[in-house]
Amino acid sequence: MKQKIKIFLAAPRGFCAGVDRAIEIVKKTLYKYGSPVYVRHEIVHNKNVVENLKNLGAIFVEEISEIKDKSRPVIFSAHGVPKQVPEEAKLEKIFYIDATCPLVSKVHRETEQLNKKGFDIVLIGHKNHPEVIGTMGQLPKGSIKLIEKKEEVENLNFSKPLAYVTQTTLSVDDTKEIIDALKIKFPEIKGPIKEDICYATTNRQAAVKKIAPNCEMFFVIGSRNSSNSARLVEVAKKSGCKNSELIFYGKSAPLEKIKSCKTIGLSSGASAPEELVQNFISEIKKDMDVSIEEVVTANEKVVFKLPKELN
């Protein structure tokens, strides 16, 4: 007789509207213009998605200069790009389509408006993440100060009025701590009218928070370079499930550890396809008698329009 195990399955999980849109942009561009189509940087941070799109005829490059056939379209990834990237494409007379998530574009517009109004700007985010590089690249070098931890706040000094923006895929709780510290040191600091951390990041973290205290182990399906996936693992640990880990491309389920559990939690990052979640469950089902309880904390109905070039 197989050993019983209960899986608490987080909902919402997996693809967000920005990821759905970015993948659709690559597919529609291939359909409309034929292959190859170039994509600057991984369209979204997931190896499975990237491999599938490569098979359809997408060629991934890190920089515009790597594009061999300048007559082919190039797509900018969902994370957004610095201003100089579209400028470089225009100079090279390359036709481009921008798949930047509209919620990242919102942060880009905020930084530009704040800069025009004479504000100094603090960006809360992770150094070298493509989204942070893209946001900082909207303005001349030195216009935005990046901070990653609340401890950095005490060393900040500004002469002009101050405002902050944030990366869209951060931990809600950690970011709140940094914002609180900024507000104590700079009581006049201006924040965004609407929270920068995106709805999908917030919803996925809320679902994990609800489930994690009931689990002996927690698993997040996602890529190692996916910020929102890494944050979900941190959230699960902080919410009471110390035994939480990321299951990334090529890493199989740690079945021996799972067999010692009666309850596990499961979610997936915003760029992880649902089939990876189902594959993970199927792997466990081979050895164990699995019951699944889906824990729904929000219903997402957000859909983003495709760029006009593809309509």
Describe the structure in your own words.
The protein is of the alpha/beta class and 311 residues long. It has 3 domains: 3-15 and 199-296, 4-hydroxy-3-methylbut-2-enyl diphosphate reductase, catalytic domain (Cobalt-precorrin-4 Transmethylase, domain 1, 3-Layer(aba) Sandwich), CATH 3.40.1010; 17-98, Rossmann fold (3-Layer(aba) Sandwich); 102-197, Cobalt-precorrin-4 Transmethylase, domain 1. Helix content is 36%, strand content 20%. It has helices at 17-33, 47-56, 84-91, 102-116, 130-136, 172-185, 199-211, 227-238, 255-259, 274-285; strands at 3-11, 37-40, 58-61, 74-76, 96-98, 120-124, 144-147, 162-166, 217-221, 244-247, 263-268, 288-296. Helix 5 links the parallel strand 6 and strand 7 (144-147). Helix 4 (102-116) runs parallel beside helix 5 (130-136) and helix 7 packs parallel to helix 8 (227-238). It is flat and about 65 Å long.
